[in-house]
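Exercise 7.
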Amino acid sequence: MRFANVSPGYGIRAHSLPGDCRVRFSDGHLLVLEDVPSRVAPLIQAASLAGLGGRLYVVQSRREAVEYFQRLLHDVSSPQRPRSPSLFLLSLEGPDGLKVLEWLQKQPSLRKILKVGLFFVPNDTVTDRAYELGINSCLARPSTPEALAEMFDSIRRYWLSLNHPPHL
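Solution. The predicted structure, written as tokens, is:
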């Protein structure tokens, strides 16, 4: 397994995911907000085991996520412009996830991005607020690598294969 950091600046790391690419994403990648560094590698490994080909971009703070989306909005003619993510997977366990959802809600051209929140311990207040802010789904984060890979496989099958996403 090989993961390459290819996007210095903005704190954004792009990880190549090897494996079976049964699904071709319309824009080619997932954007993941995970602010706990020790949780990043298991997410990458689980996504790879689930057969998610393409690119996985990981941002580790609200600032990095907002910078990513601002570049998406404003660097239209730049070759460095990031692609619109097929799915935005974000941690809802710290304040950054809700803050990014609040910011996205204020951006008319970004509201339709598919957003899935993850948490270890369900919190009704956070879940309710996330849905008010336009999240599409909230999932309990599995505690084992195998279950995490199964979750990514379900995400791949539903959100990236069966679902017909809006045009962004």
